[in-house]
Design goal:
The protein has about 325 residues and is α+β, with helices and mostly antiparallel strands. It has helices at about 5-15, 40-45, 150-155, 170-175, 180-185, 195-205, 220-240, 305-310, and strands at about 20-30, 50-55, 60-65, 95-100, 105-110, 120-125, 125-135, 140-145, 280-285, 285-290. The chain binds a DNA duplex (16 and 16 nucleotides) through loops.
Length: about 325
DNA sequence: AGTGGCTCCTGGCGGC
DNA sequence: TGCCGCCAGGAGCCAC
């Protein structure tokens, strides 16, 4: 599932082929992914040249320049408005915002693939950017650059992990007095933008913190460890071009490699790579959560309800399998 | 305000 | 073999 490293991988790949191309037309084939009408999307995006690609948390932003061609000086594209807030005669630069959610894929190629594209960007010279999305959770928006701040502000997006705001001091302050489990805290985009289920589990393992510890129980040194672990885990994800656990592929059809070095995520019942203890799974906030009970001990305050979730007893440390060998480190 | 739970959505999988 | 029900999860929404 696309999280910050996967979206960053998509951004970097598109950066090699998309800028400079003219977006001729946006075609919407599935209205569940389009928040606006096709007309409005085209009012903002059609007839414009791609000027850049950015990322904000798990959102991909495609910048386009002002309207080009014969329509540019004549009050914008023709055609009846289909309703909703109108771009009208807007001819300035715009930004397209894409969220891949669970299974969204942006595929850059000349021909459609086997799966139906939820939307298509017809480009010049003749190529198309296809948006495929099995579960149809992905979304596309188009707006004026001036509306971008409001777009993210209304969602309460937290700081970028690699931005200047995300410091150890910020993290300590954000954790303070929160009773929610650490895992739920990391998934909350209002606290830190871009962390999802895979990288939350992996960051907590790296920081040696139990996912059910209440956020407020984390001490200053632990917060420092968590801060470093979040950055290291996300950077490792980017370096490995994302995790292809379910369906992630980048715009060139390449799979990521981060799943090959996962420590705990979806490794329930397998030995921890560090100590050999069997990796366990618990549900936190409705999300599958994986951890090593030895490397991520329960000491420190546990979030409300977590004792019951774990059955009220400390799980016994599992014996190392006979054929287990310590990995080279 | 903070927190937890439900919902959307569909392919894959286990159980019968 | 075929059918049924469950599971996966990002983010928005709602209830407490």
């Amino acid at each position: 599932m696309p999280e910050l490293p996967e979206v960053e991988t998509v951004r970097r790949r598109l950066l090699t082929c998309l800028p400079g191309l003219l977006l001729r037309e946006v075609v919407v084939n599935d209205w569940t992914v389009a928040v606006q009408t096709e007309q409005e999307l085209n009012d903002y995006l059609a007839g414009r040249r791609v000027t850049g690609l950015r990322r904000r948390g798990k959102y991909l932003l495609v910048d386009v320049g002002p309207l080009e061609g014969p329509a540019a000086g004549s009050g914008g594209p023709a055609g009846d408005r289909a309703g909703g807030p109108a771009a009208g005669s807007y001819a300035g630069p715009s930004v397209a915002i894409v969220h891949l959610r669970m299974t969204g894929q942006l595929i850059f190629r000349p021909q459609p693939g086997e799966r139906p594209a939820r939307f298509e960007w017809r480009l010049e010279p003749a190529t198309t950017l296809f948006f495929q999305d099995v579960r149809r959770f992905g979304r596309l928006w188009a707006l004026e650059p001036a509306a971008e701040e409001e777009f993210f502000g209304s969602r309460g997006m937290g700081p970028e992990p690699f931005g200047p705001e995300f410091t150890t001091a910020y993290l300590r302050g954000a954790l303070r007095d929160r009773r929610a489990p650490l895992k739920a805290f990391l998934l909350d985009q209002r606290r830190i933008a871009g962390v999802g289920n895979i990288y939350a589990d992996e960051a907590l393992f790296r920081a040696r913190l139990h996912p059910l510890r209440s956020a407020g129980s984390v001490g200053p040194r632990e917060a420092q460890r968590l801060h470093a672990a979040i950055l290291e885990t996300l950077q490792a994800g980017i370096d490995h071009e994302g995790s292809s656990i379910e369906s992630f592929i980048d715009p060139a059809g390449q799979r990521g490699r981060f799943q090959e070095i996962l420590n705990v995520y979806q490794r329930t019942g397998e030995p921890c790579r560090t100590c050999g203890t069997i990796v366990e799974r618990v549900v936190v906030g409705g999300r599958g959560t994986h951890y090593c009970p030895h490397c991520q001990p329960r000491r420190g305050g546990m979030a409300a309800g977590s004792r019951r979730r774990l059955g009220g007893t400390i799980p016994p440390r599992s014996a190392k399998p006979a054929d287990w060998e310590a990995p080279d480190r």
